[in-house]
Design brief:
The chain has 6 helices and 7 strands. It has 231 residues and is of the alpha+beta class. Strands 3-7-6-5-4 form a 5-stranded antiparallel β-sheet. The protein has a two-stranded antiparallel ribbon with strand order 1-2.
Length: 231
């Protein structure tokens, strides 16, 4: 005989359980051992999913770069890339003409390759700087800039944090008038939108036939255009 309260074995002539003191009569006794089971804990509710941070309003450039919407915008912009002819491509195409004219193609190529580096070491450079304010959030402005760079084959080489914003560095491809340049863009969130300070430099050259101005003018127009294409 077993106590149904605690499961302890009890003698047939006992009227009370020696273990828990319960009265042993009627439903309080069982002929078979009593198995006690602990109640099954209710399954914990699933943790709520964390929504993606709004890339349009954030100042975290990593959020902007990693968001699927921005990746799609950059991919579409890169398909429109129309890179101009580089200095190397020009020399390659012009080789037959230069040969007929009596010019030394190899020497010309050496000048194109090494002269900019030589003059750059001497501190020779040409460039331009501008500052433009946009009534657009930081995330939208950065996304528009990345689309502009992708569409013009201006390769991003570094992005790092700055005071309430970030700095984007990109290479500008060489052209018929300039060697490869460097574009630096500093984005700063302001109450009214985003301030972009832009600087382009072509080292090793004393003139660029207006290319610095064109690069910055095209960037400004691209920002205005690409921000209207965003979701």
């Amino acid at each position: 005989m077993y106590c149904t309260q605690c499961g302890a074995k009890a003698a047939p002539d006992h009227k009370f359980c020696a273990s828990c003191g319960a009265r042993l009569d009627g439903a309080a006794v069982s002929a078979a051992p009593v198995v006690f089971t602990s109640p099954v804990a209710a399954a914990a509710p699933p943790a709520p999913s964390v929504p993606l941070e709004d890339w349009r309003e954030t100042t975290n450039y990593r959020v902007v770069l990693s968001h699927p919407d921005v990746k799609g915008l950059i991919s579409d912009a890169s398909k429109a890339s129309k890179a101009g002819m580089s200095a190397d491509e020009f020399l390659k195409l012009a080789a037959p003409v230069l040969g007929l004219a009596g010019a030394e193609t190899a020497a010309t190529k050496l000048i194109a390759e090494y002269a900019p580096g030589f003059y750059a070491k001497m501190g020779v450079k040409v460039g331009k700087e501008t500052r433009n304010g946009y009534a657009t959030s930081f995330g939208r402005t950065l996304a528009a800039i990345l689309c502009s760079l992708a569409s013009r084959s201006q390769t991003v080489v570094a992005i790092h944090e700055a005071a309430d914003g970030c700095v984007v560095e990109a290479d500008v491809p060489s052209s018929l008038t300039t060697s490869k340049g460097k574009l630096t863009l500093t984005l700063e969130r302001r109450p009214e939108g985003t301030l972009v300070s832009s600087a382009v430099v072509f080292p090793g050259q004393s003139g660029d036939w207006g290319r610095s101005k064109r690069v910055l003018d095209e960037l400004h127009q691209d920002i205005l255009n690409y921000r209207t294409l965003q979701p």
